[in-house]
Structures are given as C-alpha cells and as structure tokens.
Design brief:
The complex is a heterodimer of chains A (243) and B (344). Chain A is of the alpha/beta class and 243 residues long. Chain A has two domains: 149 residues, Rossmann fold, CATH 3.40.50.700; 76 residues, no CATH class. Helices cover 36% and strands 13% of the residues of chain A. Chain A contains ten helices and seven strands. Chain A has a five-stranded parallel beta sheet. A two-stranded antiparallel ribbon of chain A has the order 4-6. Chain A is globular and about 55 Å long. By secondary structure, chain B is α/β, with parallel strands linked by helices. Chain B contains twelve helices and eleven strands. The radius of gyration of chain B is 21 Å and the shape is globular. Classes of the chains: A alpha/beta (243), B alpha/beta (344). Chains A and B meet through helix 2, helix 6, helix 7 and helix 9 of A and loops of B.
Chain lengths: 243, 344
C-alpha cells in the first residue's frame, strides 16, 4: 500500500494540538509506518503542495487564512479539522463577543491598523470550507486522531461520540461536580475525553463542543437549583460556545 | 452451612487473611462518596458506607472488555477472564441485581464472557449499616441479606461491634475456615440479626412506592401514553447517568479496533445507555427512538415490564443511584411509578 501524503497546517491557535501528535512518542513511530508526512511545521522543515490528507489546526482570523484553507481544500482529498480552534473556533471566538475595532485597539494599540494585523471575526474551519472529519478537544486526544487515521486508511467512517461527557464520567466513577454545587458543562458537552477534567476534580469546560441536542433549558434550571445565576452559566458557556 | 461470630479485631485479621489469599475488591471512601476498589489493607474497608457510586457489577461486566482478537486472515480468538477475585461488602440490593444479571446472561444464549467473570467471583454480602439518601430497597423487597441469593458469605454487623458471618456456599465455608477458633453465635445473636433486617426493611425507604412491585408490569401495560413521559423528559439531558449507575442495566455496544497493520485488531464491548441519542440508531441512520421522551419512557418500561416479562423479576432493586446521579432530578422511579397511579 502506498502511504498517503499527509500535511499538517496551523492557523490561529496555541499549536498545542500539533504538540499532542509530537508527544505520541511510541505511537508516533507507528503512525509514521502508515503515513508519509510532507509538511509539518512543528516537527519538520520540508514543505509541499502535493498531499492526500490535510490536517488543519487553529481558527480562521484573517482573509489570508481563508485563501490558504481554500487552496488546501483544492489540493487535499481529505481535510481533517484538528482541535477546538479548527472544529468550532475555540477560545478565539471570545473575540466575536466584542466590536472588532475595540478588540484590535486593545490587543495591538497604535499598530491596530497595520495591514498584517488585519484580523476579522473568528471562524471555524467548516464555516469556510468543507471538512471531512473533526477531531475535537482543547487539546485533542492523540488516541482519537489515531482512530480517525486508522479509519481513513481502512475505509471506515470515523465517528465522534454523540453523547455527553457524563457517560464517560460515570464509567470512570467520578464524584459528580454538581454534588459540590459546581456548574459542570459535562451534561451538554460531547464526550470522547474520558471525562479527564472531572476525573481531576474540575468541572467540564466544554472544550469538545456542545451536542446538537444539548438541553440548555435543563442547564438553566439546574444552574438556579444549585444557587448559580444565569450570568454564571452564560460566562461558562461563552468559553467554548461563542458564535 | 455454618454461622460464626467474630469480634472486631478478629474480623480485621480475617480481612487481612482474605487480602493475602485473594484479589479483594472492597468498599472504600472516594472523595465524599464510596466506591469498590482493590483493597490493600483492612483499615481502608468502609462497610459503614451508604451506597457506592457504581455497583459492583463493574467487576463482572466491566465498563470496557475485549471479547476477541482477530488476525490479518480474519481468524479470531476469544479473550476470557481467567482471574479469580473476591468482592467484599456488596449490599443486598446489589446482590439481587447480580442474580438478575445471571439470569439475563444465561437465558437463551449463555454469555461466556460474563460467566468467565461471574464464576470466578466470590461475593461477600454485607447488610446495610447506613441508609443512603435515596435508597428505597425496603419497597422493593431487596433490603436485607435474607432477601438475596447467589452470594458466598453474608456479613451482618451487630450492635456490640461483633459481626455474624454466615457461609452460603462451599466457597464461603472455606473463607470462614480462615478464622481460627471462631465462636458459634448464640440464639440472641440471630435474633439481633433478625431485628436488624426488620429495621432495614423500614429504614431503607427514603422514597415510598405506592404500588406493589409485582403490579408494575400491569400498571405500565396501560400507561404508554401517560403525560408523565413528556413532562419529565423535558429536562432530560440524555446523558445516560441513570443507566450507567444502575446495577440492572446491562446493555453494551460492540466495536472493532484495528492494530497498526490495519488488518488485525480487537473486538471489545463497552457499557451503553438507552437514554443517549445514538442508542437506537441503526444502519441507514434509522432511529427507533429519536425523542428523549421515548427513550425516557423506554427505561421505565425496561425496569418495570420488559425485563420482568423476560426473567420474572422487577428489574429495579431500589438502590436509588439513578435518583442521586440525575443532574436534572427527573429519574426517581418511585416518583414516576406513583405518578402513573395518580393521574391516569
């Protein structure tokens, strides 16, 4: 079997998801037995315009990004969105809650109008191009990427869980954060992380995105039940749920 | 079968000898709750627990379990549990649930993977010392060591701090033999145990069920279109918590995972939940129960009608875990079944 040529690209992000791939250690060597990386800024110096699979992390914040991802889409057979910034805009979308000129002035001060700082409203990858597969999370779980890669190579359709984090949290036998009157976003958030945050005593931040059928009515009522205001809930939802 | 009476120091020594001889899973504190875990020292054992987050089912039907491996030619080999283990401190309602699972997994096709765990399990049941806030086992006839079966030893703590240990099987008898010079109980000790059972039948009723459990199948028979299903499920997160903590939920999902050669791999099964949106989705994206209300109703029918029709027992043991674990506070079986009585 010819190994597919894979290119990894980064847009606006902390590059922590790429780092998760570098951190795969033993499994990274296994990964390299089935793919041929041709561009991967964090791990190699080569670049290429010919590839079968493009893995893109980060969100779109400039016109140049839009043009870049449209080019990538034309060249790649499959496009994989890697991590929360790429799949849904991530924490970068907090910016969209404010007027763009205020944001630019706050961040860049006097240089705000320089052409290379011409940022606009943050977009997820699927708001600009068609995305074939999404690997959720902030950061991603490398095992999930491995699952997607193996599925692609063996002709299966990879699927992300469509149930909330509570499923994995209960299986891990964690104490529920609601028993401590914390506003955990687990009941609204897509599973697949093995409830890592609740397992370590934190409420779920919602980094894998809210489910299409997430029950926000229940979330509002339960916030009140646990002595929290709607503002408390909204501020938590904004971190990974801004439009 | 024999009954022995042991003092607290003697009991500790017995637990120590169990740990030396077996892999022991015992109840221990976990943050502000309790959980079964590998027991390293008798001091860690908390038989005064109210309820564990997950039932001991997790040792007999694990959350995730490899069923078989397959090679590049499609030749497969079953993977079976070969380890023996001992579960120490199972509450009677959880033992009733395990006995029900035994029926479910041996009816029709015998599930060899389940049985490989079950047959290697030695179970010591402990009568409840502390009632949990949502337990209603007293309403379900599952609250005492007198009302369960299938275990090897029954342990009851008496008011004077000593424990009664009753062997129920040959395996249990062998465990009792580990106690040197164990005393025989007096008639008064057995009466004290009966009094504890009588008390637990009354105390383990934090919620009242206003219908006899045996009447549930008939009540549900005429409640399919009751408004309670829609009303309650409006707040349902479809998060599956009620299923996952339930000692009588046994549904699982099967998945294949490839090794790096992309030809060989493993087939495993994992707990599933009929409350989550993907549960009834089949080929072609057809979905038998797309609405949360339909899934919500289904769960109560499983417990009160479908499984009872299959094995002749109500598939709710009144442990109250679903009530405690439901974030939206809509999963109280006693409340739901009472609703069906009041508003038809």
């Amino acid at each position: 079997m010819t190994k597919p040529r894979v290119a990894i690209f980064d847009l606006a992000c902390c590059e922590g998801c790429q780092l998760q791939i570098v951190n795969m250690e033993d499994d990274l060597l296994n990964l390299l037995t089935v793919i041929d990386p041709v561009e991967w800024r964090e791990a190699m110096s080569d670049q290429s315009t010919i590839y079968d699979v493009a893995i893109i992390e980060g969100s779109i914040t400039r016109q140049a990004d839009e043009i870049k991802v449209m080019e990538i889409r034309q060249r790649a057979t499959y496009v994989v969105a890697l991590g929360a910034c790429a799949t849904m805009g991530g924490v970068n979308k907090l910016k969209n809650n404010f007027a763009i000129h205020d944001v630019k002035k706050t961040v860049y001060g006097e240089a705000a109008n320089m052409p290379h700082l011409d940022t606009f409203t943050v977009k997820a990858l699927n708001e600009v191009i068609e995305v074939d597969f999404e690997v959720h999370g902030c950061p991603i779980d490398a095992d999930e990427l491995v699952h997607v890669v193996k599925c692609l190579l063996s002709g299966q359709t990879p699927s992300a869980p469509t149930h909330p984090v509570c499923v994995e949290c209960k299986m891990a036998e964690n104490c529920c954060r609601y028993e401590y009157d914390e506003l955990c976003l687990g009941p609204l958030t897509r599973a697949g992380c093995d409830a890592r945050c609740p397992a370590n005593g934190f409420w779920c931040f919602g980094c894998r995105g809210f489910l299409p059928d997430a029950n926000f009515t229940a979330a509002r009522e339960m916030a009140a039940e646990h002595g929290k205001s709607l503002e408390d809930l909204e501020s938590k939802l904004a971190l990974f749920g801004s439009k | 079968m024999s009954i022995k009476k042991v003092g607290s120091a003697e009991f500790k020594g017995w637990v120590q000898s169990l740990i030396k001889k077996h892999t022991v899973y015992g109840v221990q504190a976990k943050e502000d709750r309790f959980a079964f875990d590998v027991l390293d020292a008798p001091e860690d054992l908390r038989l005064d627990y109210d309820v564990t987050i997950l039932p001991p089912k997790k040792y007999i039907q694990p959350q995730k379990e490899v069923l078989l491996t397959f090679d590049e030619n499609g030749v497969f080999e079953s993977v079976m549990n070969e380890e023996s283990f001992l579960i120490l401190g199972v509450h009677p309602y959880d033992m009733v649930a395990i006995s029900q699972m035994d029926k479910v997994f041996t009816k029709d096709n015998r599930d060899e993977h389940y049985m490989a765990y079950r047959e290697r399990a030695t179970i010591i049941v402990s009568d409840v010392q502390t009632a949990s806030k949502d337990v209603f086992a007293g309403c379900m006839g599952t609250s005492t060591g007198e009302e369960c079966s299938g275990h090897d030893v029954l342990l009851t703590l008496l008011a004077d701090g000593s424990s009664l240990l009753e062997a129920k099987t040959e395996k249990g008898e062998a465990l009792l033999d580990l106690i040197p010079n164990a005393a025989e109980p007096h008639e008064g000790d057995l009466e004290a145990r009966s009094a504890i059972w009588e008390s637990n039948r009354k105390e383990l009723r934090k919620h009242e069920l206003h219908v006899a459990p045996s009447d549930l199948p008939e009540l549900l028979e005429r409640s399919y279109d009751h408004p309670v299903w829609n009303e309650k499920s409006e707040l349902c997160y479809a998060c599956g918590s009620c299923n996952l903590v339930c000692p009588t939920c046994y549904c699982f999902n099967v998945q294949d995972d490839f090794n790096w050669d992309l030809k060989s791999g493993t087939r495993s099964r994992c707990w599933d939940s009929c409350m989550v949106s993907s549960f009834a989705k089949v080929a072609g994206d057809h979905d038998f129960r797309p609405l949360a209300a339909a899934r919500y109703r289904h769960r109560y029918y499983r417990k009160g009608k479908y499984v009872p029709d299959m094995i002749g027992e109500i598939a709710c043991v009144g442990c109250g875990r679903c009530i405690t674990s439901c974030t939206a506070k809509i999963a109280n079986p006693a409340e739901v079944y009472n609703c069906l009585l009041e508003k038809v």
